[in-house]
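Holo prediction. Input below; ligand is iron/sulfur cluster.
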Amino acid sequence: MAATPEKPAPATPRRKPGRHRGEGQWARGHFTPLNGNEQFKKDDDGLNVRTRIETIYSKAGFDSIDPNDLRGRMRWWGLYTQRRPGIDGGKTAVLEPEELDDEFFMLRVRIDGGRLTTRQLRVIGEISQEFARGTADITDRQNIQYHWIRIEDVPEIWRRLEEVGLSTTEACGDTPRVIIGSPVAGIAEDEIVDGTPAVEEIHRRIIGNKDFSNLPRKFKSAISGSPLLDVAHEINDVAFVGVEHPEHGPGFDLWVGGGLSTNPKIGVRLGAWVPLDEVPDVFTGVISIFRDYGYRRLRNRARLKFLVADWGAEKFRQVLEDEYLKRELVDGPAPAQPVQQWRDHVGVHRQKDGRFYVGFAPRVGRVDGATLTKIAEVAEAHGSGRVRTTVEQKMIVLDVEEAQVPSLVAALESLDLRVNPSPFRRGTMACTGIEFCKLAIVETKARGSSLIDELERRLPDFDEPITINLNGCPNACARIQVADIGLKGQLVLDDEGRQVEGYQVHLGGALGLEAGFGRKVRGLKVTSAELPDYIERVLARYQAEREDGERFAT
Ligand code: SF4
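Structure of the complex:
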């Protein structure tokens, strides 16, 4: 699961004249909870559930868990009930939450900046093998997720993670989620500015701080000083993107209000340049605006993107400056167009210190605990103590001497971790899907994996950058709206009129300075069985008809 799933929202009720209670904005004095989520957050801070997990639930078992903790506050510690096995996608929308709940959990480990030591990676792998039936998926927000977690084991898992400086704090819930960072921060030769000190300071100030643990909804953030724009900044609530200011030098361009899900919006630039040491203050200002002015009445209007859309960039910047920073921001330039389309850092690249980093592609983010442990061993055997995760469900080994690179590449490839992947292996992402996700309608991970095999076999000469993203439902955990080919899972009719698993097709989405959402191809739905044929036809035609320099999205 790459992002916290959300059940398709009910239609917005009509307001009755004279009975409008506002949007639940605290800054306007609306403190009365206007829905069940706001009520349980007011009743008790989500962070407080940890004590109950440690002292009651882990000892008395699953059935002892208070429903408001089970389907609410436990998310503040990265815990989400997983889908009971054997329930088909047609039942997702009709069953009650408790009928979908398994007694096992998904547990998300937050990896801010995607930065891990090999020791941390080894511990993550060991926990997976001991407590999670070997599961460990790399998400598209640099996290790692386990499945099959028992509540009884959670305190011990936390102890082991925290012993090596990792945590699951606010990995889900209406909280400041993982702070995405450039996976090559501090090492890339072409880096404009290293955002790592800002990631660390924001984490220290904000994560686990009860001033920011009751937000209207989730709050997603990204910081990158890479000219490759490698953190999907366009679809975060706040993002800091590396730019060179003509007078002030390297710093960050400030973006707010991006987000996907069922009402996608590309973030907007505020036209402000922020130096590295001021990023934590500006971050704090933006998240405070969200907390104070964010809409809390309807869950499907509670993301920052709706406030930004209503206010516009100018007013948002004004409020940020006047009420929160108490000073004006410096105007600044927009980031430049990246020189290459792939942003995942896959392959072998020279670092600024002369050593090399090696990026590799598992299949649709699916690894396992044993493989993660082997990656740690292989990295260490080649002189590295650091790895990174990317927002494309990929990984990178850092700090490798040139002489060690060929051997490292061979070792990774022998684990089916491709350093030189096909465009299909490289560009295909998939969300969790029906295997574990309670909101899913269709299978995604296995489908994505078999699709890669099929396309590699059918189109061996295809060598253009291409992104194929699969979602298991109308949510956007695998970013379907900004993929070249976005596939939204739903039930469709086959040739004989039977309801089967399939996908609504979106074509031509993109991130980058030409960011935009894929067009829903009217009426175009493919069954899962037809998927390889359909994509083969689309790509073969693109290959045959494209003009020089023409991208799929154009
Ligand atoms: Fe997200 Fe996929 Fe689950 Fe839908 S099925 S909520 S897109 S993880």
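Residues 1-20 have pLDDT under 50 and may be disordered. That is the main takeaway for now.
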